Structure formats: structure tokens, C-alpha cells
């Protein structure tokens, strides 16, 4: 079973890239972030034409998350995180697919920092930690996949010294991510590529992709049930080089059935 996460950076603007990638790689389950489209503008028909069913949580111009499944209709469990009834940003959706509970998330960026955006990021992180703990307590196989907007270690950034004051690399943000892992989650990509400088994001400036000046900020976290089932994990880096592609590349894991 292959599960992937992909920040598409505008699903309608990147639709040809997304459809090509789905057709060529046929992952079983896909988590998408940054749809940047209201609910009614989600391109369901085009996605169904290449063999996928979907649920999504849209938002005009910003954010937005979706879960696609190649084998069955995802059964939606929840959208949004509890803990802040005034939060209207579309950043989390959860579904049961193929016997696995899949949480798709787009964690806030937090810049400029310090300031209200960093405060929102840390508050959202706290809410995610609380929900992640309840998922582990439920004693079912879970994947938490998405764009975490965290650079956990120096290995996860090209020229990490350039990110010292950025909200993706601040000590409190990195600690929040480590605290999440400490609940019992496994960072699948790092588990497989323990000491490799492997990236999932390259910005559009200064030839970052050509120079491989990237960041690792997209993750699939596995609950203890799934860690023994982990076969492989990787990044479809070549997709970042396709015409009109997102600044992220798809990240995936393969699990035994």
C-alpha cells in the first residue's frame, strides 16, 4: 500500500501536473495541501477520471486539504481540529481508507516571527499534539501526513544557518515537532533515509531546485501499528522539475498489507 502527501500549491493551477503524477505513480492514498480553492471549485471530475475518489476541505485563495483514494471512497471522520471554535482556516481533514486512519494536515507557516502568525502556529501545533495523542490512544493504525512547515534538524535544510530566525526553524517550533514524535510517532522518510540530506521543497528563486538548495518540511508520521509495516519511503523529486509544478515534491511511503 502506497500513501503519499503532496503540497500542490494551488490545485487548479497545478492540475495537469497532479493528474500526470497520479497516472504515472498510482499511489493508493494521497493527502493534498494548499488547494487554494473554495469547496465548489475542487476538480473532482478530473480526479475521478484518473481513478480516484476524494474528500476535501476547501478555502478561497488559501490553505485547503484533501484526501484521495484509488481503491475506495474515503470515509470522512472529521475536518478541523478541536480547541479553537473561532479558527476558520482549512488545515486538517481525516478519513478512514483501506483500514487506516489518515490525517491530512497543513500546519501554519508562522512567518513573520515573532508575531501573531507565529502565535497561531504554536497554538495550532498544541491542538495537533492533543489530537495526535487521542489518535494513538484509539489503538488503530494511523498516518498523519502533510506539510508541517517545520525544519526539524540541520540535516533537513540546505545552508541551515540561513533559517535561524525563520518560523520553520525556531527552537520552539522544532521542539514542538520533537514532542509530537515523542508521543510514539515515526517519521517514515527519516526512518528510511536516516542520515541523508533529502528535501521535499525548493523555492522558485535563485535556481534553488537546480542547486538542490531545498528543505525537508513534508512528512508522513506513522503510528506504532504501522512502523513494522514500513517497507520504503521516498520523494518524487523529478516532479518538482516539471513545467508549472508546485514548489514541493510528492513524498510517499510503502506499507505491507
From TrEMBL:
Cross-referenced Pfam families: Exo_endo_phos
Family from the record: Belongs to the DNA repair enzymes AP/ExoA family.
Cofactor binding note: Probably binds two magnesium or manganese ions per subunit.
Site (Important for catalytic activity): 218
Organism from which the protein derives: Adhaeribacter aerolatus
Cofactor: Mn(2+); Mg(2+)
Endonuclease/exonuclease/phosphatase domain mapped to chain residues: 4-248
UniProt xrefs under NCBIfam families: exoDNase_III, xth
Gene Ontology biological process terms, A to Z: DNA repair
Keyword Hydrolase (UniProt): yes
Residues forming the catalytic site: 106, 147 (proton donor/acceptor), 248 (proton acceptor)
Binding locations of Mg(2+): 7, 34, 147, 149, 247-248
Listed InterPro entries: AP_endonuc_1, AP_endonuclease_F1_BS, AP_endonuclease_F1_CS, Endo/exonu/phosph_ase_sf, Endo/exonuclease/phosphatase, ExoIII-like
Site annotation Transition state stabilizer: residues: 149
Protein name: Exodeoxyribonuclease III
Lineage, uppermost ranks: Bacteria, Pseudomonadati, Bacteroidota, Cytophagia, Cytophagales
Keywords: Hydrolase, Magnesium, Manganese, Metal-binding
Amino acid at each position: 500500500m502506497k500513501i503519499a502527501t503532496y503540497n500542490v500549491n494551488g490545485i487548479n493551477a497545478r492540475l495537469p501536473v497532479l493528474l500526470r503524477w497520479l497516472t504515472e505513480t498510482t499511489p493508493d492514498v494521497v493527502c493534498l495541501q494548499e488547494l487554494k480553492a473554495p469547496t465548489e471549485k475542487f476538480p473532482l471530475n478530473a480526479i475521478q477520471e484518473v481513478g480516484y475518489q476524494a474528500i476535501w476541505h476547501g478555502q478561497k485563495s488559501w490553505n485547503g486539504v484533501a484526501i484521495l483514494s484509488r481503491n475506495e471512497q474515503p470515509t470522512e471522520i472529521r475536518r478541523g481540529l478541536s480547541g479553537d471554535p473561532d479558527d476558520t482556516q482549512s488545515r486538517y481533514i481525516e478519513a478512514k481508507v483501506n483500514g487506516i486512519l489518515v490525517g491530512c494536515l497543513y500546519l501554519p507557516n508562522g512567518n513573520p516571527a515573532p508575531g501573531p502568525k507565529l502565535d497561531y502556529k504554536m497554538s495550532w501545533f498544541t491542538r495537533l499534539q492533543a489530537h495526535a495523542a487521542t489518535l494513538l490512544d484509539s489503538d488503530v493504525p494511523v498516518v498523519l501526513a502533510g506539510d508541517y512547515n517545520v525544519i526539524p534538524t540541520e540535516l533537513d535544510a540546505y545552508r541551515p544557518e540561513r533559517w535561524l530566525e525563520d518560523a520553520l526553524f525556531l527552537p520552539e517550533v522544532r521542539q514542538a515537532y520533537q514532542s509530537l514524535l515523542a508521543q510514539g510517532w515515526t517519521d517514515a522518510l527519516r526512518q528510511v533515509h536516516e542520515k541523508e540530506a533529502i528535501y521535499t521543497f525548493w523555492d522558485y528563486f535563485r535556481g534553488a531546485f537546480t542547486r538542490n538548495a531545498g528543505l525537508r518540511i513534508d512528512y508522513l508520521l506513522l503510528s506504532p501499528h504501522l512502523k513494522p509495516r514500513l517497507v520504503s519511503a521516498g520523494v518524487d523529486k523529478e516532479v518538482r522539475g516539471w513545467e508549472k509544478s508546485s514548489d514541493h515534491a510528492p513524498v510517499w511511503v510503502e506499507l505491507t498489507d
